[in-house]
């Protein structure tokens, strides 16, 4: 369960039969630079580059392979899941208030075990956070907030994520940025999780930090090497997961991939002789029912 959640921190309908999609690089290339997950799709005179992102980063992710930067430079548009740099704070606050805050007079203390609550309070003190400012939030939100802080403390940086790398370049170059999703799309799937599954996620965040860091480090090594097959294995879900988590996973992956594929198909079919550089989470581009598969 936690592996899937970490990967989508640390990212449809069928592409027309007449489209030609090819992996731009394979893991055997010796040219320096991270290879990532990188595809080129052509339809008539339109081109879409699909690049799989890791949402958090470390310096060793760079430089990127020269073919990746060349493809970006040749594109008229940068397409991302969501342009977080253009997100209005009031929109984020409104969405969080609706789905991530207890509005019934209770706090997180009333919904998780005493052991977990004590560990939570101990952890937030390490980050100089006030108890009253955290306990109003539901476990899924607290888990994600703390995950970001814990990863930052471990040396990972959101500013070094692949999305930010291209968003910053596009802002400087005044390249048009297109978002595939809204804040509601990004956060809405959390409402599927039961209180039990949310508590399990928070428990993992607090008590399995070392294991989680090892998984992220392994993910980054796969991504740097362009190991598509091993990355695709991470998209699989364990059978023993709860029914609500399976529904959550379906919404997080398959449902979003269907919607993003439909929009990407529109880029290919618009007949404008244009090139789009699309950056989405790496696992949206590998395995069965991914954007590339569809």
From TrEMBL:
It comes from the Bacteria. It holds the Pfam family TraB_PrgY_gumN. Signal peptide: none annotated. This is TraB/GumN family protein. PROSITE patterns: PROKAR_LIPOPROTEIN (PS51257). Transmembrane segments: none annotated.
